[in-house]
Amino acid sequence: MKSRIKIALIGFGKMGKEVNALCEDSRDFEVVSVSYKNINDKLDVEGIKKADVAIDFTSPDVVIKNIEQVGKLGVNMVIGTTGWYDKMDTVKKLVSKNKIGLVYSPNFSVGVNIFFKIMDFASSLFAKFPDYDVYGLEVHHKAKLDSPSGTALKIASKVNGLNFTSIRAGRNPGFHEVVFDSVADGITFSHQAYSRMGFAKGALLATKFISNKKGMYPFEHLFKI
Ligand SMILES: NC(=O)c1ccc[n+]([C@@H]2O[C@H](COP(=O)([O-])OP(=O)(O)OC[C@H]3O[C@@H](n4cnc5c(N)ncnc54)[C@H](OP(=O)(O)O)[C@@H]3O)[C@@H](O)[C@H]2O)c1
Fold this sequence. Notes:
Elements: E1 5-10, H1 14-24, E2 29-35, H2 45-49, E3 53-56, H3 63-72, E4 76-79, H4 88-98, E5 101-104, H5 110-126, E6 133-140, H6 150-156, E7 164-168, E8 175-181, E9 186-192, H7 197-210, E10 215-218
NADP nicotinamide-adenine-dinucleotide phosphate is lined by residues 11-16, 36, 38-39, 57-59, 61-62, 80-83, 105-108, 144, 146, 199.
């Protein structure tokens, strides 16, 4: 029988629990370690050493420290935590110094990554037609810390002149909308996550991908055409 990929979960909040639930029903993955079940806990270093891949869904406050510590153990990582992209150079250095593999994304949903591709294409078309203004809206549940979302920043990096308005209220797991609008007409693109399951499924896709690789990859790498 094929052996299962061993996962160390770092962070056991909404996303950590969602990934754990998928692993419980999976023949491909097993969770061998959980860190930060409580905020005052330390990293479960002994457990992480036994894992093939550590998946981090924590917070911008602690994620870089986690990458440092897990990197030293030589364990590959999937980083779902957002709000740290200003430290991209530091993380690149840690990945290369420790010779680990790392996949990161502000959004592991397959649908959103297809949305990113559509935005690349839309951006190249609308660039030829300056009559169109562009604006964005993103809505997330009130507990989300970063604003605008990492996903919104990623979309904005693809489309010239795009700024997002952010709403933090209620329970929405993630809504992103981009509108191209002119005097004559408008086109609206939007993505609505229905639950956190899509993010967790994508994080496991990324886990499989990075389980036997070194180097740093955005999750978008898996959607190259
Ligand atoms: N990439 C994606 O697809 C995706 C999708 C959804 C969310 N996210 C991102 O993933 C991250 C986690 O989201 P979530 O909804 O799971 O959040 P959450 O429910 O607040 O869970 C965060 C987890 O990290 C722990 N934690 C937070 N700060 C910590 C610290 N300073 N030291 C140690 N542990 C700490 C929390 O412990 P306590 O419970 O004790 O506070 C909890 O276990 C956020 O950055 C969010 O934006 C990414």
